Amino acid sequence: MKPIPITPAPANAAALKAVKPVICYPTETLPRPDLSTYRALRDDLEMVETIIIPPRDAASWEVPAGHFCRLVCSEGSQVGDLNLFNLHNLKERFYSGKTRALNGTHVGLGDQLFSNFPYLRSIATITHDTLDWYGFDEFGGSVHDVIGTRCDPYTHNLLSHGEQYHFCCHSNLTRALAKKTGLSVQEAEPHVHDVLNVFMCTGFTRDTGQYFMKASPVRPGDYLEFFAEIDLLGCMSACPGGDCSSEHSSDNVVCHPLVVEVYKPTKPPRGWEPPPTNGYDGTHGL
């Protein structure tokens, strides 16, 4: 948050502020999939698994490469915090920061979800979003953000002057990952990472630059769908903030379950192959 300035503005302050911005990562040369070849398969999918995520809890599941996965609002407005891992290597995981840098603050149809260094590749592609009508509202808010980190017990402890709360998304994800992998909670926790905030409506205030949330527009039946570019381990928490209209890390708001559906297509997209890991040689100039 920017404080009230104590430094006098220079004489050319207006000119400095009027400098036009430059996009940090022009993506014209970024390899993009032919989305039409993915969407051509959507009318003939076989559901192979359904997972129910209880309110204020999390669950883990697998999505084989070449399958589709839908994250579904089933009963009432509810936000979910999503982690994605390489099924065979937990060290490779969803990288929200680079996904944000290459796509924008919020993701939707056609956007790719990237993994962390040194792997840096697309691990999932968003193939459908029933909330794409929302766009950006007058406050600068939108859905499916890659700017928030996840509600966690450490920040809650700081802001509440010492309270212990165990059902925030970070803890939920930690428990679910530990259960799925057989790791201890202490071993699983370092693998939990910044999330894709599914269905969450967020932005930054224009005056102070603070991260805000508002009531999610998601309705029962809405879903976000992605195509697994590699074998994935998914892990999602049904946030204890419910629709995030008032607070999170709380037992005071109404929460609902979320549903995960995994689908197998009759064939892979035309010309599709799982992406290789990043081609940088890793020598860093030495």
Could you characterize what this model shows?
This protein is of the alpha+beta class. Helix content is 15%, strand content 29%. It contains six helices and 13 strands. A hairpin with a 2-residue loop joins strand 4 and strand 5. It is globular. The mean pLDDT is 96.
Average pLDDT, all residues: 96
Strand content: 25-35%
Number of β-strand runs: 13
What is the H/E string? HHEEEEEHEEEHHHEEEEE
- Termini separation comes to 39 Å
Number of helices: 6
Topology at a glance:
Elements: H1 13-17, H2 35-39, E1 45-53, E2 58-63, E3 68-73, E4 80-86, E5 89-93, H3 96-103, E6 112-114, E7 122-129, E8 142-145, H4 153-159, H5 169-181, H6 185-188, E9 196-204, E10 211-214, E11 223-228, E12 232-238, E13 258-265
Antiparallel strand pairs: 1-13, 2-12, 3-11, 3-13, 4-5, 4-9, 4-12, 6-7, 7-11, 8-9, 9-10
